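Quick one, probably user error.
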């Protein structure tokens, strides 16, 4: 039996899924916004109410992952920022 911390640590953050229309999406969460200003000390995220509603809200003080959008076949370009 896996503990909670080991199951969280074993998540593939770059897993993707192919939709029925042939497009792909990240399989690790729900899109809630786009970063438009990032510095070493802060970031500003543009969020729409519809995106937040689809994610059932975004808790204050939570961690977000900002993914670099690249083609699924380019494994060397997979990166994410912890916000």
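Nope, works fine. Designed sequence:
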């Amino acid at each position: 039996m896996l503990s909670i911390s080991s199951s969280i640590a074993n998540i593939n953050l770059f897993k993707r899924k192919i939709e029925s229309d042939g497009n792909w999406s990240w399989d690790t969460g729900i899109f809630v916004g786009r970063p438009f200003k990032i510095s070493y000390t802060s970031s500003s995220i543009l969020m729409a109410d519809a995106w937040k509603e689809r994610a059932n809200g975004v808790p204050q003080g939570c961690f977000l992952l900002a993914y670099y959008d690249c083609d699924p076949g380019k494994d060397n370009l997979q990166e994410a920022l912890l916000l």
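Residues 68 and 74 are 11 Å apart (CA to CA).
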